[in-house]
């Protein structure tokens, strides 16, 4: 009987995944593997809400701040590194926590990557040139017309993600969503899927509060320090691209802040859709009564006994 288990904690941004994961890891005396694709980069802190030094000391975290924004990093590389870390840790630990809001990265670890067609450099260049000349909205419309299922699920505010999904379609004339329906890989460990939920109005309020806190903590200065890297894929993301627009004098700081909040809410909606899939057990998150949330997880038989 296989006693090894990975507990997945997913859910939308600002729902409290990290807080619960740390509390649960301490309860189980285990460690956390990050599945937040924005927290992989060592140069990014405030804008990605990276766990604090104190939190990182409380519980051992893996795959946080381990690569540079100067390097390209794929979901395939993450799958390989995460599985290597899981195998290493399972030599001494029976249960690990995989926590984050990047659903595709979680699926890569738990179910394996899907076999996508090879995309030529010509197609990649054509899509990138279209993006440069006609903008993200043009690519979003093309995606919607050819693969509405992916349009509804992916982060369409992320140019890199939209271009990647479109490149699959252009290379094969088959929607990206068709490829991800392929047979899943069977891992040699058990998996419990948890999706943290919260009333939508409360979640949106928490998102707004988080953005305000980021500004107070120095988000603008962090973005300024990264300005020369603004064209890197890792920085074409919420919290950075809006401030870059302000620094380029395209929008005011208040407009930038409003855009961050709006784009964060949109991203949260897509995450909610992703983590609403049948395999996930929906657990109501209560930050003020986090032990109650953990008891709810235990009551649903989602973790091994301590």
Shape: globular
Look up the CATH topology of the largest domain. Answer: Rossmann fold
What is the H-and-E element order? EHEHEHEHHHHHHEHHHHEH
The main β sheet shows up as: 6 strands, parallel
Strand content: 5-15%
What does this structure look like?
By secondary structure, the chain is α/β, with parallel strands linked by helices. It has 2 domains: 5-114 and 182-299, P-loop containing nucleotide triphosphate hydrolases (Rossmann fold); 121-179, Histone, subunit A, CATH 1.10.20.140. It is 51% helix and 9% strand. The protein has a 6-stranded parallel β-sheet with strand order 3-2-4-1-5-6, with helices on both faces. Helix 2 links the parallel strand 2 (32-34) and strand 3 (61-62). The relative contact order is 0.18. The model has no long low-confidence stretch (mean pLDDT 93).
Features:
Histone, subunit A, Rossmann fold, 306 residues, 2 domains, alpha/beta, 51% helix
Chart the SSEs and their pairings:
Blueprint: E1 5-10, H1 17-28, E2 32-34, H2 53-58, E3 61-62, H3 75-89, E4 95-99, H4 103-111, H5 121-134, H6 136-146, H7 148-153, H8 159-172, H9 176-179, E5 190-197, H10 200-217, H11 219-225, H12 241-247, H13 253-274, E6 281-284, H14 290-299
